[in-house]
Design brief:
With 238 residues, the chain is mainly alpha-helical. The chain folds into two domains: 192 residues, no CATH class; 43 residues. Helices cover 55% and strands 2% of the residues.
């Protein structure tokens, strides 16, 4: 019980409550946004994940509903990400600051996420290419920058993975600024999904592609393992 009392009080419980709440709100927002960036980047870079994320990118027209065009397994991955980051942030702050940990919210949403959505974030999946000042696009992802992310142009490949903050793309070298009056063709090259709007196809085709990828890798591993034995067999026969 003494241990529980100590954890409840926190190591730095002398800090004013408002400071703790502000610090937690910022920390939780930054950690959550960084984890979204990392998972999103993996979705593009890892061949085993790209077929899942390709369902989202196969949209040739962006609307606010496109954000829900995701494969169920991708949804599970991002839900696990959210649970993991919240567990880290909440447990860390309770350990450090005790029961004074809370979050500044508007209508139950982190205040920073709410404000970013108010200033155009919800238009990322639309034809409305709102741009920010160039210096601000180093800090925040504008709707126009995210629309570039959906472009099939080679120069836009693997750019602007950020959800809210652009600093992660800036740090990792994937930042691309928006350009005024730029016409974009959206979707993916060799888009099989344009002719197959069946929900069954959207859900099961990525699984088939992942299965084919795993099988091909296992065959390569098998060939590498068996190569010395096959050489020995041929030598003995000769």
């Amino acid at each position: 019980f003494h241990t529980l009392d100590w954890l409840n009080s926190g190591m730095f419980n002398q800090l004013p409550v408002n400071y703790v709440i502000l610090l937690f709100t910022v920390f939780q927002f930054v950690l959550d946004d960084f984890s979204k960036f990392i998972i999103h980047r993996w979705m593009h870079k890892w061949p085993i994940l790209w077929p899942l994320h390709k369902v989202h990118h196969s949209a040739s027209v962006l609307t606010p509903m496109t954000v829900f065009r995701t494969h169920p397994i991708e949804g599970i991955i991002f839900s696990l990400r959210s649970s993991f980051t919240q567990a880290i942030s909440i447990s860390s702050f309770i350990f450090l600051f005790g029961s004074s940990v809370d979050l500044y919210t508007i209508l139950g949403v982190n205040i920073f996420v709410f404000l970013f959505n108010i200033f155009g974030s919800n238009l990322r999946h639309s034809h409305i290419g709102i741009r920010y000042w160039r210096w601000l696009e180093h800090i925040l992802i504008s709707p126009a920058q995210h629309q570039l992310h959906h472009s099939i142009a080679v120069k836009h490949y693997d750019k602007n993975f950020g959800s809210t903050l652009a600093i992660w793309d800036w740090i990792f070298g994937s930042l691309h600024h928006s350009v005024e009056f730029e016409t974009l063709k959206l979707g993916i090259n060799n888009n099989k999904y344009e002719k197959n709007y069946d929900l069954k196809y959207l859900y099961f085709q990525p699984i088939n592609e992942i299965n084919d990828y795993i099988v091909s890798k296992l065959k390569k591993v098998k060939n590498i393992i068996m190569k010395p034995f096959l050489k020995g067999k041929y030598l003995n026969e000769s």
